[in-house]
Amino acid sequence: MIDYNFFFWIVLAAIIGIFLLDLVSEWLNLKALKPELPKAFSDVFDAQKYAKSQDYTRVTTRFGLIESSFGLLLFLGFWLAGGFGWLNDIVTSWGHGSVVTGLLFFAVLYLANEILTLPFDLYDTFKIEARFGFNKTTPATFFSDKLKGLLLAAVIGGPVIALLLWLFGSVDNAWLWSWAAVTAFSLLMAYLAPAVILPLFNKFKPLEDGELKDAINAMAAKCEFPLTELSIMDGSKRSSKSNAFFTGFGKNKKIALYDTLVENHTTPELVGVLAHEIGHFKKRHIVQASVLFFLLGLFIESTPLSAAFGVTPPQTYCSFLFFAMLFKPISKVLSVLMSILSRKNEFEADAYAAEVTGSAAPLVSALKKLSADNLANLTPHPFYVFMHYSHPPMLERLDALQKITK
Hints:
This protein is mainly alpha-helical. The chain contains 16 helices and 4 strands. Helix 6 crosses helix 10 and helix 13 packs parallel to helix 16.
């Protein structure tokens, strides 16, 4: 039986309030779409492509609102119908220990979510992304990725959750030990991900000797960036969109370039993009926090919080999920604040790239091409940017780079 107490109304108001804020930001973002192409992009967009980018924004926004509305109604329906208490009674009746019972609880929720969201994933991939010329994924690859994701969740996520459940159920100062364990796990994954996990989904081949490899190595040496490996990833296997990323930890940094990025950009442009990413490393744009586990420790045995979701007496594994719901408004505020910091960091990384390459022009050219290739929204509403953007709007980035040039 759900207890309509203080925690119930706080969580309910937070979930609905955040949904409405997102809804307003999406509506304003659609209203901000302008038919006139910004002059700065006239060399990479024509009228037809610009109209296509705006249509892409409209379609993906409306589809996202349908998906998020479905998710909200499903969650509220499950909660208010006593679903969490019902599921807890079922997994408890199987007679396992608290850790195994907790794993089963999360496994059922995870699998149910995967099944219920599968139609949305299929429609997004094979209808929307295909309609706009992005999708390269075959049904076999799609379902193979899903299966691999499930296996990784079990093999990697399962032991981590089991450890956290055991710590909070058996150890004093569990929040501190949990933070240490998750930090150690994150460092371990920085080593394992590029060597073990990423190759399960994509093929990587060493970048061939030539102008591009020499230019990237020269830039890394100039920036004193500990680059140990350069590779090309078959990103075109799934999408025509372009990207690049860093992996590794400490003095073992690796760069992976999407094959689509290499095909569509010149060597100076690619060097400019990578100089930007190196800028994040040089500026030490990294943030860590342990306060989340401390707060979790305060609510792990909260009877009123568990009762608000229909689970009594409190169960450690249930409290993990319920605390996440209670923490949602704080998490949203922190997310917005972190995005503000992230946008500041992006400007700094852009400035670093312009300085170290000797010119802002290659990065400007690359950013404009990426905007065109990915059908980016060139005129997002400021409130939408405030709520969601981790990077500054492209026009603001170009303006800042042009000022550096002048």
